[in-house]
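Q: Got a minute? One more chain.
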Amino acid sequence: MKVLYLGWLGYKNIGDELMWDIFREKFNEKADSTKYKLIPSTKTVQKRLSNNKNKNFLRNLDSIILGGGSLLGPRFITILYNAIKVNKNINLFIWGSGIDWIEKRDLNRFVLMNGEQATPKNEFNYFNDSQFKHKLQTVIQHAKFIGVRGHYTYQYLKSIGLNLDRVKVTGDPGLLTTMIRENEENPKSNKVVINWGTAMHKLYGKNEAGLENSMMAIVNELITKGYEIYIYPIWDKDITPCKNLYDKITDKKHVHFIKTVPNQYKILDLIKDARLTINFKLHANVLSAAAGIPFIALAYRFKTFDFANFIGLDHLVISTDDPHLSENVLTKVSYIENHGSLLFRNMPSIQQTVEKDLDQIFEFFK
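A: Always. Here it is, folded:
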């Protein structure tokens, strides 16, 4: 029986590839390989799924796993909805997916104000579209297992009128990257690792140039404080922005630019002896948290707030439209210098809970 893992695969984004790697490893460990064959949603497969004429592919699937990431949007929900229409016996699973496209005004009103007077909107308006909400509710009611990334995703979906009785907040699957916490905060380290890149201008504040200048000021100040800086990309489109940031730093002796996209294992090796990390992309923060290394998250969209809230570290997040971003990042650096050892003391129990909850999915494949 064929099992499809559905996600943004093949786009050279380590966050999405990380989710697939974790799921594949666990599936190979826990599923009955004599009965089930796992298939990744490569670009070719995604193209076939987007073609409404290609129904035989869906009919021949036993199960579809909507993987980790910000996948609760029209592209993938429509694929799942079409799968139900073509094959009413198909098994659907949602494995730690979340939402992302919420404008800052609604983040402030809904998330930061606990949702009392939410009027949900987003940049693409699909959560206000009755047809999309119908598809999403149909998928939720049909699915065998539904785990979402964070409490904010859950609250938002509930606020638009969806029935979430069968939905559980399971956390981001990326937290399962390492269950053996060999990497602990090193108070003597003078190493700061910075993940940098681009959101293609789809970020809070819509000002990547200004954000780059703020980060340049932060790096210069960290060098003055005696830190060695390492800058790395997590997506191939992040390489040029990383180089641009590196080129702007005057004191190159204390700045190191990782010129290629490292996989998750090389990222863990890079950050394992860091004092802290400062991260633009979500899964750079997830990897830092999984490794027990304090992070400062530059929240360019909703998903970063969603993740940080789940692990109880909202206070380490700074929105990319913060008018005092440089000063506030440096304030959080000082906070980590003084309190870093206390920040991740609950992470092992959080990871164990995430693993226990997400592993429920593999009971269906024995």
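A: The chain has a mean pLDDT of 91.
Q: Perfect, thanks.
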